[in-house]
Design brief:
It is built from 21 helices and ten strands. By secondary structure, the chain is of the alpha+beta class. The protein has a four-stranded antiparallel sheet, with helices on both faces. Strands 2-1-10 form a three-stranded antiparallel sheet. α3 crosses α17, α5 crosses α16 and α13 packs across α15. The N terminus and C terminus are likely disordered.
Length: 488
């Protein structure tokens, strides 16, 4: 009897231990991100599974990163923290500041580059190889026929008033192409074939100095003016320097690289490729990727430079797929940036105070804009919750609600600029759980599969008779968008 009791006790202990171990393991995989509050595996799986986003770990991480930024913004708002510390802003925006300084230095060293060729410029203009245009644009994208008719009446009235003398004034006051409004509607010079066909056809039908009737493109209604050679001569002559400028620039960079003594570390491609999978994890990493006369080039420095590139460049995706040779060249190119900065510092190049003030203003405006869009301005939180803790809870709830609608495409995406994200993550606590992402992706796949099966079961059979081997042709994808000015 005693033996039986002992064995039963051991079995009970074993079961209890296994259960405890299972609970401990689950505790490490039931959340994916924390930032004041928690983004659970279940919540992320539901958001991803019920959305139209691809069910992949990198997509799940992207969603969680946005959630963290939003929640940290909520915490800052609950603390009435404007995030306006100039030192923190400068540290977060160092890539933008470095770019400004490098551009100033480049303007100095490139001043004598290239040879102007006014004869070639005139020939290209007269042959129509190079075109130029000013325009007034009223947008009609997304409008119904009645709305378009109202816009047409408005632009017809503008056309009745416009003359070569007042074109720029009326363009500044009326055009909806914000990129050209300040320049009086000027699109500058461009190669033939860069504009959408309707725009280019109307332009080349004009003689220099003439103004077109109202024409319609996929963007809306335009009034076009074709400048004279004298009006556009400066731009044309400057453009004629292009080839000789390119040669001079190439020579400058080659010399910079030679004198800079750039040496890329053998294991740099491995580190760069890992960075491509999770740049946030390497934001403070001091691993040396290369050395030069500018000093040590670290992984954290590369992350900063990469953040200056536009999202549409998809540079992180390219990094993950690139061979080692291209990753070595990538590192060398950014080290050359550092060498340019070293020259700028040696020449005591400074950023204008007005430019720095503008950068700070853009940062603080981004904070206020994000708070407003997410519904967590400090004032709105203080009106509904008195203690700091209660304000944090209220902000977290509002953000979770907004975030769920956004992932389901029922609310607009709120952009958090990288420098703002960096300041938030430097100042407030957050964390990610890699194991949680694995579980969230698995659960999201089940949710998506279940939803797809339910949809298929509920769909009526097609009314189109289809014989053996017939398939419905896919709908052609829409052409890539063109800027409002009409450039392809």
């Amino acid at each position: 009897m005693k033996r039986t009791i002992t064995l039963a006790a051991i079995a009970a202990f074993t079961l209890s231990a296994c259960s405890g171990l299972k609970d401990a393991l689950n505790a490490h995989t039931d959340w994916v991100a924390r930032a004041g509050t928690e983004l659970s595996v279940v919540k992320l799986a539901n958001l991803l599974g019920k959305s139209r986003a691809p069910i992949r770990k990198d997509v799940a991480k992207s969603i969680a990163n946005v959630w963290v930024d939003y929640q940290l913004l909520g915490i800052a708002a609950a603390h009435n923290d404007s995030l306006a510390d100039p030192k923190m802003i400068d540290e977060a925006m160092w890539p933008a500041i470095a770019n400004l300084k490098a551009k100033k230095w480049y303007d100095v060293v490139s001043k004598g580059w290239g040879v102007e060729d006014s004869t070639a410029a005139r020939t290209q203009w007269e042959s129509g190889q190079i075109l130029a245009a000013d325009h007034i644009l009223l947008l009609t994208q997304g409008m119904n026929d009645a709305q378009k008719a109202q816009v047409k009446q408005k632009i017809d009235a503008i056309r009745a008033r416009v003359t070569p003398a007042n074109f720029a004034t009326l363009a500044k006051a009326n055009t909806q192409d914000k990129a050209t409004a300040a320049q009086g509607g000027s699109l500058g010079i461009f190669q033939r074939g860069q504009m959408v066909p309707e725009f280019e056809q109307a332009l080349v039908a004009l003689k220099p100095g003439e103004i077109s009737p109202v024409i319609q493109t996929q963007y809306g209604y335009h009034i076009i003016r074709r400048p004279t050679y004298d009006q556009i001569k400066t731009q044309l002559v400057l453009a004629s320097k292009g080839r000789s400028v390119a040669v001079a620039e190439s020579t400058y960079l080659a010399k910079l690289e030679q004198n800079g003594k750039i040496e890329v570390k053998k294991d740099a491609p491995t580190t760069v490729r890992a960075l491509g999978n999770d740049p946030d994890a390497y934001r403070r990493d001091k691993t040396v990727l290369a050395t030069s006369t500018a000093g040590k080039f670290t992984t954290s420095r590369l992350v900063g430079w990469l953040e200056t590139l536009p999202p549409q460049a998809r540079v992180l995706d390219q990094i993950k797929q690139s061979p080692d040779s291209l990753l070595v060249q990538l590192v060398r190119n950014f080290v050359k940036n550092e060498l340019v900065l070293k020259q700028a510092d040696s020449a005591k190049v400074q950023i204008d105070p007005a430019e720095l003030t503008q950068l700070h203003a853009s940062f603080t405006n981004a904070v206020r804009s994000a708070w407003t869009q997410l519904g967590v301005t400090p004032t709105s939180l203080a009106d509904s919750a008195k203690s700091e803790g209660d304000r944090e809870k209220l902000a977290a709830t509002r953000i979770d609600e907004y975030f769920a609608r956004m992932v389901q495409e029922q609310a607009a995406f709120v952009q958090v600029p990288t420098p703002l994200s960096n300041v938030l993550r430097e100042k407030y606590k957050y964390s990610f759980n890699d194991a949680g992402f694995e579980r969230a992706v698995q659960e999201a796949a089940k949710i998506r599969s279940s939803a797809d099966s339910a949809r298929t079961a509920g769909q009526p059979s097609t009314a189109v008779p289809m014989g053996p081997g017939q398939v419905i042709a896919p709908t052609p994808s829409a052409p890539s968008p063109t800027p409002p000015g009409g450039k392809k």
